[in-house]
Structures are given as structure tokens and as C-alpha cells.
Write a structure and sequence with these properties.
Structural class: mainly alpha
Shape: globular
Helix content: 55-70%
Distance between the termini: 62 Å
Number of helices: 16
Number of domains: 1
Largest sheet: none
Order of helices and strands: HHHHHHHHHHHHHHHH
Length: 277
């Protein structure tokens, strides 16, 4: 089990060396005097920037490394990365971690115990207040989960857990690979090809995975989701097959830092120019 010191190090990372270059927030702070009218606003913004990224902190706590440094050459290493990524991105949402990840209390406890034993002490704080996450209260989640379960290509608990987790995260608004906390879309394709190959191999035209799931559900029930029989003639072609580029949610803090720096650059220059007059 992890000591409180080990957990603290996993969340916040090792203490920086004395010779380390000043951070962006300290550089911004030093550019304005304490009497500058922007100082109070800057202080509030930099405190946000310096707070640990909740997703990356959770990933480090589970695995001992940053998401960018994950080693996924082996199948077990890949599965561990996938599970940690989904739990990490779920930790960024409101609600208990197990519920946001789509797992019942028993499933969640088994997953943490087997794959991330260093975090077992935190299981009670991550479980929903009731014994069962609300995954079954949403028929849509259940339909996607059942679709995945029926198309499994691996035995054991991991595939079963992933069917529930992917179904729950598919309800979020971003690209599916983003809401699974993955680094890029090919990781999602590898996940589906590994654990749900009969389903994944049917996506011969590289349709967006969320759209593909619902198309398969419609076809299995004898319904037609599309307005035209030929995809290339459909007005919704870009919706189904458009690019799924984006930024991993594990890297969002980098964008926040850049935006904050840009937002203060203009006012800082204006204030300096005014002082020179």
C-alpha cells in the first residue's frame, strides 16, 4: 500500500531542483509590481495554473509515471495504460470516480486491487455512495455496453470492465478517444481491435467510433440510421467520417497555460507603455 508521502509524490511529482528555470507563473508575477492593478488578477490565475492537473495526477498515482511516458509495447502494458487513462479522465469529471468510469463498486474495487495495488487505500473515497454505479439507469449506456460485450475477443475481466467503461465514456461530448483519456485516436483503434475485434473489423471505412457504435445498434435492430443508402452522397458525411483530431485531455493544462500567458501579455504591455509616458 502507498504511504501518504508516496501518494503526495505521485500526485505532485518530485520537488524541483534549485537550479530549475523559473515557472511561467513566477515569470509573469515578476513582470508586474505588487502595486500593479493587474497583480491581484494575476495572482488568482497563477494559483489555478500551479494546481495539479487532476487527470495526470490520478494517472501518476495509479501507474507511477506521466501519461506521456507510458510504455505500451506489451499487451499487458497497453491494457494497464488504457485502464489508467480512463480512470484518470473520469477523475476530471464531477462525481465519484467509479461512477464516472462506469463501474459497479465490486468491479471497481477488483480493478484497482489487481492492476493498481498502490492505490487500494483510496478505493473507499472513489466509490459511489451507493453500492452500484448508475450505469444501468441509462438505457443508452446499457445498449452500447451490450453491443461491446457481444463482440468481445478476449477472455477475462479486462474486456468486461472495458465494455462498461467505454459505454459510459461514450456518453460524454468529445471524441471518444478524448473522453477515454487516451493520447491519440490510434490508441482507441488498438483497444477495440484487441478486445472487441469482431465489432472493430466491421468499421471498414474508418467511421467515427461513436457513430459506428450507433450504426451497428440500428442495423442489429433492423433500423436504418442514414438518410441515404450511399455514404458519399449523404449530407452528414463529415459528421460520420470527419477528422477526429484534437488534444488529449491529459494535456489540457498546457493549453490553459498558453492561453493565460497570452491573455496577460496584452494588459502587461499596455501597463508598461502607460508607465513610460
Amino acid at each position: 500500500m502507498a504511504s501518504s508521502q508516496a501518494i503526495e509524490i505521485a500526485i505532485r511529482g518530485p520537488a524541483p531542483a534549485q537550479a530549475q528555470s523559473p515557472s511561467l507563473s513566477s515569470s509573469l508575477s515578476s513582470s508586474l509590481s505588487s502595486s500593479d492593478p493587474l497583480s491581484e488578477e494575476l495572482s488568482s490565475a497563477t494559483s489555478v495554473l500551479e494546481a495539479p492537473h487532476p487527470g495526470r495526477a490520478t494517472y501518476r498515482l495509479l501507474t507511477g509515471c506521466d501519461p506521456a511516458d507510458a510504455v505500451i509495447e506489451t499487451e499487458r502494458g497497453f491494457d494497464r495504460h488504457i485502464l489508467a487513462s480512463i480512470l484518470a479522465v473520469a477523475a476530471m469529471d464531477k462525481g465519484r470516480l467509479a461512477e464516472c468510469a462506469g463501474l459497479a463498486a465490486g468491479e471497481f474495487s477488483s480493478l484497482i486491487t489487481e492492476w493498481f495495488p498502490a492505490a487500494v487505500d483510496l478505493i473507499p473515497s472513489w466509490l459511489p455512495h451507493v453500492g452500484l454505479a448508475n450505469r444501468d439507469s441509462d438505457d443508452e449506456i446499457g445498449m452500447v455496453r451490450d453491443l461491446l460485450m457481444a463482440q468481445r475477443s478476449t477472455d477475462g475481466d479486462v474486456g468486461r470492465w472495458l465494455a462498461a467503461m467505454v459505454a459510459r465514456r461514450a456518453m460524454e461530448p468529445n471524441h471518444l478517444w478524448e473522453d477515454l483519456g487516451l493520447r491519440e485516436r490510434p490508441e482507441l483503434t488498438r483497444l477495440l481491435m484487441r478486445h472487441f475485434a469482431p465489432l472493430a473489423t466491421r468499421n471498414t471505412r474508418n467511421m467515427k467510433w461513436k457513430r459506428f457504435f450507433y450504426r451497428m445498434l440500428c442495423e442489429d435492430d433492423g433500423f436504418v440510421m442514414c438518410t441515404t443508402p450511399v455514404c458519399t452522397q449523404c449530407n452528414d458525411f463529415a459528421t460520420c467520417f470527419g477528422e477526429e483530431s484534437g488534444e488529449s485531455r491529459m494535456a489540457e493544462r498546457r493549453r490553459e497555460v498558453a492561453l493565460q500567458a497570452a491573455s496577460f501579455e496584452g494588459p502587461r504591455n499596455s501597463a508598461l507603455q502607460a508607465g513610460a509616458c
